[in-house]
Amino acid sequence: MMESLLSPTLLLLIFFLLCTTTSGQLSAPAQAPSQAPSGSTTTAGQSSPPAPSPSGPLAPSASSSPADIVAILRKARKFSTFIGLLKSTQMDAEINSELKKKSNAGFTIFAPTDSAFSDLKTGTLNSFTDNQKAALTKFHIINSFLTISQFQTVSNPLHTSANGNTKEFPLNVIGNGTQVNMTTGLVNTTVDSTVYSDGQLAVYEIPQVLLSQGILRTQAPAPAPLPPKPKKVTPLNSQAPSRSTTSAVDSSDGTALPHHAPIVVSIGVAVLAALRLCL
Ligand SMILES: *[C@@H]1O[C@H](CO)[C@@H](O)[C@H](O)[C@H]1NC(C)=O
Ligand SMILES: *[C@@H]1O[C@H](CO)[C@@H](O)[C@H](O)[C@H]1NC(C)=O
Ligand SMILES: *[C@@H]1O[C@H](CO)[C@@H](O)[C@H](O)[C@H]1NC(C)=O
Fold this sequence. Notes:
Bound molecules: 2-acetamido-2-deoxy-beta-D-glucopyranose
Strand content: 5-15%
Shape: globular
Helix content: 40-55%
Strand order of the largest sheet: 2-1-7-6
Largest sheet: 4 strands, mixed
CATH class of the largest domain: Mainly Beta
CATH architecture of the largest domain: Roll
CATH superfamily of the largest domain: FAS1 domain
Number of strands: 7
Radius of gyration: 31 Å
Number of domains: 2
Mean pLDDT: 71
Order of helices and strands: HHHHEHHHEEEEEEHHH
C-alpha cells in the first residue's frame, strides 16, 4: 500500500528535478542581458542633474503678440532647412502654442544655418527616419528661456526637448558672458549670433548641426527578450522556487550543469528500479 502511494510522488519529484535543471539552463543566459539595461539606467539616473533653474526673474514681456518661430527664422533668410524640420515635425506649432500661454518657461533654440546642414555628410538628413528627424529637431530646443549671460551658470548637461535621457542626448554648454561654446560629444560648436530674444524666446545661430548618439542610432536596441520559461510542471511544494534558483546559480558558473542531468536521471532510474524490486 505504501509503495503504490509513494511511487507516483517519486516520479513527480524526479520529473520536477529534471525540469528545474532544464529551466535553470534556459534562464541562466537571460540574466546577463537583463542586468545590463538596469545597470545603465542607474548610471543615467545618477548622471542626470537637477532640473535647470527656471529662467530667473520674469522678464517683462513688452511684445503684445507672441512670437512666431517660423516667421523669425524666415526673416533671417538662412534657416530654410531648419524651418523645414520644425514644420515636418510640428515642433513649430508646439512652440508657438506654448508661447501663447500666459505662463510658460519659454524656449531657447539653437538654429543651425543652411550651410551647417550642407556641411553634414552627404545624404545624412535624407537617410534619417521621421523619428530621427524629430529627435534631431528637438535636440536643438531647450524648454526654457536662456540669455547668453545665463549660459555661464547653467547646469550641464542641458535638458533639451529630445531627452528624458541626457546620456543619449548630452548637450553641454559653457559661456563666459559673451561667448557660448557647446559640445555634444560628437560636435563642438559655438553661438555665432543672437537671431532673436524677447524674454520668452531666444534663437541663437549656430554654424554646425548638433548630432548625438541618440539621433544617429536609428532605434534604440530593444533589450533582449527573456526566453519563455517552460511551465510544464506545477511546483509540488514551497521548495520549488529555491530549487530553481539554485540550479540557475550553478549553471551560470558554467560547467557544473551538464553533469547534473545524467546524475539525476541515473538516480531516478535507480530509485525506480529499487521500487520495482520492492513491488
Ligand atoms: C570656446 O572655444 C574656443 C575654441 O575652442 C576657445 O578659444 C574659447 O575660450 C571657448 N570659450 C569659452 C567661453 O569656453
Ligand atoms: C569670452 O571669450 C572670448 C573668446 O575667448 C573673448 O573674446 C571674450 O572677451 C571673453 N569675454 C569675457 C567677458 O571674458
Ligand atoms: C571637442 O572639443 C574637445 C575639447 O576641446 C575635444 O577633446 C574633442 O575632440 C572635440 N570634438 C570634436 C568632434 O571636435
